[in-house]
């Protein structure tokens, strides 16, 4: 189901007044409630005041950068989805941004319609299905890994593993079909719910993040099938 804009608040964090006004006006016109900030400190304060459902966050801010803001939000236990905006186009910058805990990344100059599409996609996947009463689903298990969708909790070898919402959805995608190789584009569609072709490098970055958390315990469960995609399985013949 498409997210209903009227039920969501978007926080725009951008120090350029013209871009901030452009984004604020476009989001208002699309039906969202909008708050705004011009610096990292203002972003933290406004997040506490307005409890946004999504943050559109510029990377270059006068007092800090969007990567640090995102990391600090996650460190404080705030997992509000973040859409980064930046003039940086290098792949390394994109990886840094996604590794900091952001949900998506758009480079400047951008088309406003693309921002609206990304915002809608992020909110839709964050909200999840809203049709009818929620069905009680038993935890998903594979080897010593357990994912409980009702409690939004993951455990490996009996130890809880904290995951961001996007990491959780990615692991849920893998554990729902263990030992099946999922193509990157399949994962992109199931986890990110894009209505348009997306960059599969976001999948690679999040798999790397997920491995650091899930595969700290032996044996490794998340495996790469080169040229195809990823799967959740036990190592075969003692190898990954």
Describe this structure in words.
The chain contains 8 helices and 12 strands. With about 240 residues, the protein is α/β, with parallel strands linked by helices. The strands form 3 sheets. Strands 2-1-3-4-5 form a 5-stranded parallel beta sheet, with helices on both faces.
Structure in a nutshell:
The chain has 240 residues and is an alpha/beta fold. The protein contains eight helices and twelve strands. The protein has two domains: 123 residues, Response regulator (Rossmann fold), CATH 3.40.50; 93 residues, Arc Repressor Mutant, subunit A (Orthogonal Bundle), CATH 1.10.10.10.
Low-confidence stretches: 129-134
Largest sheet: 5 strands, parallel
Mean pLDDT over all positions? 85
What is the CATH class name of the largest domain? Alpha Beta
Over the alpha carbons, how many angstroms does the gyration radius reach?
18 Å
Count of beta strands: 12
Strand order of the largest sheet: 2-1-3-4-5
């Amino acid at each position: 189901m498409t997210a209903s804009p009227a039920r969501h608040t978007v926080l725009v964090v951008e120090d350029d007044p013209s871009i901030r006004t452009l984004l604020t006006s476009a989001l208002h016109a699309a039906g969202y409630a909008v708050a705004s900030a011009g610096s990292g400190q203002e972003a933290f304060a406004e997040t506490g005041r307005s409890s946004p459902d999504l943050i559109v966050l510029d990377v270059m801010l006068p007092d800090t950068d969007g990567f640090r803001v995102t990391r600090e939000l996650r460190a404080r236990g705030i997992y509000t989805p973040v859409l980064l905006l930046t003039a940086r186009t290098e792949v390394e910058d994109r990886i840094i941004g996604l590794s900091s805990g952001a949900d998506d990344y758009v480079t400047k100059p951008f088309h406003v319609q693309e921002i609206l599409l990304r915002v809608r996609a992020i909110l839709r996947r964050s909200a999840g299905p809203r049709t009818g009463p929620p069905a009680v689903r038993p935890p998903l298990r594979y080897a010593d890994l357990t994912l409980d969708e009702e409690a939004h909790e993951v455990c490996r070898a009996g130890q809880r593993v904290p995951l961001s919402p996007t990491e959780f959805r990615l692991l849920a995608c893998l554990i729902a079909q263990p030992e099946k190789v999922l193509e990157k584009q399949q994962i992109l569609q199931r986890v990110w719910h894009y209505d348009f072709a997306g960059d599969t490098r976001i999948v690679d970055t999040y798999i790397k993040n997920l491995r650091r958390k899930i595969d700290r315990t032996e044996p490794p469960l998340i495996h790469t099938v080169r040229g195809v995609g990823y799967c959740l399985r036990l190592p075969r013949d003692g190898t990954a």
